[in-house]
Write a structure and sequence with these properties.
By secondary structure, the chain is mainly alpha-helical. The protein contains twelve helices and no strands. The protein is globular.
């Protein structure tokens, strides 16, 4: 027993000799202080990375990037056809118009909003991160604004990216906009239309996600809102022949209608009571009404999120 102790004692003594206490004092943070703007930028970047699964295990990347692939594949195919085949793709109606391509990305957009977007708010409440965020220069409004920007940016990957590929296809095929000015006009329309759709659907998706702490319930709520609002308003206007202004409650189609107006498709007149008739198509509603309806969705969604977070005990 004594021999074993004699063997262990030198090893213990060597470990004690190697241990060093470098500093016992409190050392304040001495790095750059970027304030509120830096905190908001950090939340946006981290939220975009989180939503797209960057820096996370592969299982978290699958669903968001599946939605991106679904949206991009048709555009990539159009670019490939325009590059390989020597045919007039416009006269053959192979290439869709810019405003028509959104029909290809609608499934991806619904999928992304329902499965991925709810995580951006729900997770912070479930894992207790909200009080930690609010212990920084962030306030509730700046935290929510940062999260909204992050969602809009990720949605823009779907609503803008494929249209840029389509613009490339038209340009390669030789049927694109004539001249630099027209090309830039189309580019601006792509960006504005994509951001407009992303803003409307972001507000609605975040509003639903703010009402529950369960991702599954939030996902179901978003999908029901997107699909249910279309079904109900379609029945009321087209079957029951009620006031076509009820299309304002059709989230997906009213956002698409705004996109059409940005591309110069659809009614442009100011709203006039005399112009409304039962069974009227959403494309026949005035641009002013469509813009107002989308603005109302954004404001209503923001109001719901703000009301919900004012009731959450998270500090500031």
């Amino acid at each position: 027993m004594s021999e074993q102790a004699d063997v262990e004692m030198p090893a213990v003594q060597a470990a004690e000799d190697a241990a060093q206490i470098l500093d016992q004092r409190y050392r304040p943070y001495s790095g750059p202080r970027r304030g509120l703007a830096g905190a908001m930028r950090a939340v946006v970047v981290s939220s975009v990375r989180f939503t797209l699964g960057l820096g996370r295990p592969a299982r978290h990347k699958f669903l968001p990037w599946l939605a991106v692939v679904i949206a991009l594949v048709p555009a990539v195919v159009f670019v490939g056809i325009a590059t390989v085949l020597d045919i007039d793709m416009v006269s053959e109606q192979i290439l869709p118009e810019y405003h028509q391509y959104y029909g290809f990305i609608q499934v991806a957009l619904f999928f992304f909003c329902g499965i991925v977007v709810p995580e951006i708010l729900v997770v912070d409440r479930r894992n207790g991160m909200l009080p930690l965020y609010l212990s920084t220069p962030l306030r509730r409004w700046s935290y929510l604004a940062s999260k909204s920007v992050a969602v809009a940016v990720t949605l823009a990957v779907i609503t803008v990216g494929p249209l840029l590929f389509l613009l490339v296809a038209y340009t390669i095929e030789g049927s694109g906009p004539d001249g630099l000015t027209d090309w830039l006009v189309v580019l601006v329309r792509i960006l504005v239309a994509g951001v407009a759709i992303a803003a409307t659907i972001t507000a609605a998706s975040l509003a639903i996600s703010s009402l529950t702490d369960r991702r599954a319930f939030a996902a179901i709520g978003v999908i029901l809102l997107l699909l249910g609002s279309r079904l109900v308003t379609g029945v009321l206007v087209e079957v029951a022949e009620l006031d076509p202004r009820l299309y304002a409650f059709n989230l997906s189609d009213i956002a698409a209608a705004l996109k059409d107006r940005i591309y110069g498709v659809g009614a442009l007149a100011s709203f006039d009571e005399g112009e409304v008739s039962p069974g009227q198509s959403i494309s026949e509603l005035s641009t002013m009404f469509v813009v107002a309806a989308n603005a109302a969705w954004v404001l209503a969604g923001a109001a719901v999120v703000w009301w919900r977070y004012r009731r959450i005990d998270g500090g500031k």
